[in-house]
Amino acid sequence: MWDKRSVLKNGAALFASACVVASLGGCGSKPSDNAVAPVDIAGGAVEKPNLKLGFIKLTDMAPLAIAKEKGFFAEEGLNVTLEPQANWKVLLDGVIGSQLDGAHMLAGQPIAATIGLGTKADLVAPISLDLNGNAITLSNKVWGMIAPSLPKGPDGKPVHPISAAALKPVVDSFKAQGKPFKMGMVFPVSTHNYELRYWLAAGGLNPGYYMPGDVGGTTSADVQLSVTPPPQMPATMEAGTIEGYCVGEPWNQAAVQKKIGVPVITDDEIWRLNPEKVFGLRKDFVEKNPKTTAALIRAIIKAQQWLDAENGKNRAEAVKILSQPNYVGADAKVIAASMTGRFTFEQGDSRPAADFNIFFNHFAGYPYYSDAIWYMTQMRRWGQIADQKPDQWYFDMAKAVYRPDLYLGAAKALVAKGVIPADSVPDTDGFKPADNKFIDGKTYDGRKPNAYLDQFAIGLKGKATVTAAGVKAN
What we know:
- By secondary structure, this protein is of the alpha/beta class.
- The protein has two domains: 18-132 and 276-453, D-Maltodextrin-Binding Protein, domain 2, CATH 3.40.190.10; 134-273, D-Maltodextrin-Binding Protein, domain 2, CATH 3.40.190.10.
- 34% of the residues lie in helices and 15% in strands.
- Helix 2 crosses helix 13 (290-308), helix 5 (109-115) crosses helix 17 (391-401) and helix 14 packs antiparallel against helix 15 (332-339).
């Protein structure tokens, strides 16, 4: 997290060329040679200075808390109220219903709403809030069953990353006893759901499929996943309802502190530099309030820079702010256990984790089309998108929801004023280069979503669909 970012410069491009327009007719679904153009917003007073923004009590809401507490919203002429929400559905409904002007959102939420998974609404994500920040925790009981078989390093501690293959004998044992093996995640279109599914499948365990109208996603599952709000994860596991979970901080560290569970892998070990949360707005809000939108993005960028400044010199102060009951409300020691450059897996096993929470470095704020497309590939892989879609569909949906043009307009205004360095803004077409920094070594290229899906032994591909009997290859 603390390394100086390098500028991504790649020559492939985006959607606007005639080739892409014609791609469904056989030209090939490829981005055009046009870089993303920033939206330039004229100066003047914001249209809506008084705003209410929602969030869930997680450390990755930090850019909003810091923008409020350090005066970055106020600098942009905004009077912002931050309001915690009970769960991700309540938060989403609040934005859609205009009770909230915008919110800290799961990266998959505005995509899912726009394509009509669950609730249908036109939402946009003009800025990413962070990279990484999640972990997978197992109950003490399950950890005790797998720990003896794990490879150990010279220090006697387990070698990381830990594969889900270690869970297979445990899952088989549960099955032999006629008991399902259950784990928790925070929402059906959350990064946590897809990271947990990815980890399980990479270890040879099927996390199950969704069918139309099915919100459980447990068809053909070796491991059954269910939704639990983040702050309730430790108590739900302690009660024995689930045997583990994937969640953001501080709720993995809470299990360590309470001595009820052991985090076994952080999400940067599942997919390095993965996108996590976004700032979500209604499309009509952006259209009616362009100056307000630009001001919000600028304030959040300033907060992100503050969070990652000078090798994390501000993180201790950030921890104190987040520990307040009106924000995350967890003990400062629990928040600090993952947010200050180290991550605690067990009592006595804290390891360097400089990149566990990234807010500004590595172009963390830029909303890449390729990130949006990855989420949609996972929706397709697990049956939330029931039928095969052409590559062009993924491109079009990504462009509709993720708005780097809005981000660039705000970021370049800050560069012009000397607030952020020029090399903190990527020179890109909106697509990251092909990436193989996944736990299974698979390569992801956002320009080839269907080819990406074809690589997996577990998951839908091609024209396959899901029935009550399992996967049907059409």
